[in-house]
Design brief:
single chain; alpha/beta; Conserved hypothetical protein from pyrococcus furiosus pfu- 392566-001, ParB domain; five-stranded mixed sheet; about 50% helix
């Protein structure tokens, strides 16, 4: 076992899914250090990827440690690497997962911090929050068709609005589109709005979505700001609390 800079380590093709870290685990790590070594394999000189459970890597980031204990497992064959990659915990459904992350984002509004606690990247946290912000009827259909609609499909759907979202959802279910085909379908389909949205507006929408924890849309021409809380009163309460409103 040795210590290695966390900046030299990244997740890779043999990294297992992780249930995240708890506040108790974080407190213990601050007091006594990270006890469990991270299994890693060499990608190239000075660069390594995680094999198996990445929890210690996220834990090191949470306590702002520059290094993490590691064990190099370059000797393992592909079959052994695949075994270590198997999920550590049973995953909830996609919508349950998105709802959980969206609820947690109310308690932990910093997406990067929430990602470290849950063993996710910041972009994944943002995507899950956007998925949860979709209309209830859309999420209900996704929940009913888990074999047809995967995370990649949901990410594409979350980027659409109104009729385009429903149209693509029906197409995925009826025709069994792959994620790539779904992306292609959105490019080929004539958009409802012919004007291209300003990249600065998109960045602002994404920032507001991150802050509020649900999808936010700006319409400069109409002068409107739309906050989609997905028909969840808990999410609405979280949005209102961010505006300083309380009963």
């Amino acid at each position: 076992m040795q210590l290695l800079d966390i900046d030299m380590i990244s997740m890779g093709s043999y990294t297992a899914d992780c249930s995240g870290i708890t506040s108790i685990e974080e407190d213990q790590a601050r007091l006594s250090g990270i006890a469990e070594a991270l299994a890693i394999r060499t990608i190239e000189p000075g660069r390594f990827e995680i094999v198996g459970n990445p929890k210690s890597w996220f834990l090191a980031q949470a306590i702002q440690a520059a290094q993490v204990p590691v064990i190099v497992v370059d000797h393992l064959n592909v079959k052994e690497l695949e075994t270590l990659k198997k999920p550590i915990n049973k995953k909830p459904s996609l919508i349950e997962w998105a709802e959980k992350i969206s609820d947690l984002s109310i308690e932990i509004p910093n997406m990067a911090e929430l990602g470290r606690r849950e063993g996710l990247t910041r972009s994944m946290v943002c995507n899950l929050v956007r998925i949860d912000a979709m209309p209830f009827d859309v999420k209900e259909l996704i929940q009913k068709h888990p074999k047809s609609i995967k995370l990649g499909h949901a990410k594409v759907l979350a980027g659409l609005n109104g009729l385009r979202q429903q149209s693509l959802l029906n197409k995925i279910i009826q025709s069994g589109l792959t994620v790539r085909e779904a992306e292609q379908y959105t490019r080929n389909e004539k958009p409802v709005e012919s004007t291209k949205k300003d990249p600065d507006i998109i960045r602002l929408e994404n920032k507001l979505t991150e802050i509020l924890g649900c999808r936010t849309t700006l319409n400069i021409e109409k002068g409107t700001l739309t906050i989609n809380y997905g028909k969840s009163l808990d999410v609405l309460d979280g949005v209102l609390s961010r505006f300083g409103y309380c009963e």
